[in-house]
Design a protein that fits this description.
With 323 residues, the chain is an alpha/beta fold. It contains 10 helices and 13 strands. It binds nicotinamide-adenine-dinucleotide.
Length: 323
């Protein structure tokens, strides 16, 4: 039986990866320090004989006993609310954490895939974004802590490949949504759905003309799965090219939830990217992958998930202690 370490396993994407690899008959070692994740995302796996959970901060030395065939490094704060509150830990998990996991992969002879992001393109001057675009990032702006951590993560991963012949894979993930997102993590999908369900007006930043392209989680997981087992070492964009302005997206959510709230406008945050759309030609060609789930159906599934939360969860404000 193949053994895989998944970091960030109690988070949104990590928990879906755990499900997928358990389904594919892997032995899954799930690692997380729970800083932005939640054990409830993986508690259904606790009794599974091929699953173990390890509470650990990967920015510290990482030890795993026994063999390891694969590592998926998904640990990192991922929403602006999170990484603006814990900027240094974000930089550490992208740099020290990635270094620790590359070292572990080298020791075990394991293949490692790292979760990079469309944020490496910053506020892009090229549209749609191809993997060859170098990006437009403000290193010292508030978002720089995340963007530069991920850029460093890609660099050190490539260096381990060229210097040590390590088997590495780099996924540049674009906005992904679906069940198990945190309601109050500030990302646009849970933010709009949460506001709609609570009967609040939907907050749009700027004029709402900035665009995003949302990928449903099942599609993303399939893309990651195929990338891991491909033999391609350069970055691959994984996302859904179906682009929409935030203003139109807010209207879609209002229609979907059947409420009569309004859209209200607030100032645009610093360095908020104006356009975001992946060019997925490379993923199509190399992985024979493209997203299958349309936004309407994906949003319905996501809404059903958020509707299943208790009133208490729906109304609770974010009380994470990041100290
Ligand atoms: N969801 C997206 O749209 C998206 C887009 C681009 C990239 N990504 C990347 O995918 C990964 C997962 O994102 P997500 O959306 O699931 O976020 P998430 O916050 O739901 O999950 C991240 C998980 O990592 C854990 N973590 C953070 N720092 C850690 C550390 N030092 N040690 C151990 N665990 C740690 C958190 O507790 C959490 O469970 C991140 O690396 C993120 O940058 C996500």
């Amino acid at each position: 039986m193949k053994r895989i370490l998944i970091t960030g396993a109690a988070g949104f994407l990590g928990s879906h990866l755990c499900d997928r690899f358990i389904k594919e008959n892997f032995y899954v070692i799930a690692m997380d320090n729970l800083i932005t994740g939640d054990l409830k995302n993986i508690e259904h796996l606790f009794k599974h004989k091929n699953f173990e959970f390890c509470h650990h901060d990967v920015s510290k030395f990482v030890h795993v006993s026994g063999d390891l065939d694969y590592i998926l490094h998904f640990a990192s704060p991922a929403s602006p609310i999170d990484y603006l509150k814990i900027p240094i830990r974000t930089l550490k998990v992208g740099s020290l954490g990635t270094h620790n996991l590359l070292g572990l992969a080298k020791e075990k002879g394991a293949r490692i895939l790292i979760a990079s992001t469309s944020e490496v393109y910053g506020d892009p001057l090229v549209h749609p974004q191809t993997e060859d675009y170098y990006g437009n990032v403000n290193t010292i702006g508030p978002r720089g802590v995340y963007d530069e951590a991920k850029r460093f993560q890609e660099s050190i991963t490539m260096a381990y490949h060229t210097c040590h012949g390590l088997q590495t894979r780099i996924a540049r993930i674009f906005n992904t949504y679906g069940p198990r997102m945190r309601l109050n993590d500030g990302r646009v999908v849970p933010a709009f759905i949460g506001q709609a369900l609570r009967g609040e007006d939907l907050t749009v930043f700027g004029e709402g003309l900035q665009t995003r392209s949302f990928c449903y989680v099942d599609d993303l997981i399939e893309g990651i799965y195929r990338l891991l087992f491909s033999d391609y070492v350069y970055p691959v964009n994984i996302g859904n090219p179906d682009e929409i302005t935030i203003k139109d997206f807010a209207e879609e959510i209002i229609k979907l939830t059947g409420t009569d709230q309004k859209v209200i406008y607030k100032p645009l945050p610093v360095n908020d990217p104006l356009q975001r759309q992946p060019d997925i030609s490379r993923a199509r060609e190399i992985l024979d992958w493209e997203p299958k789930m349309g936004r309407e159906e994906g949003m319905k599934n996501t809404l059903d998930y958020f509707k299943s939360l208790s009133e208490e969860e729906l109304y609770k404000s974010e009380h994470r202690d990041f100290s």
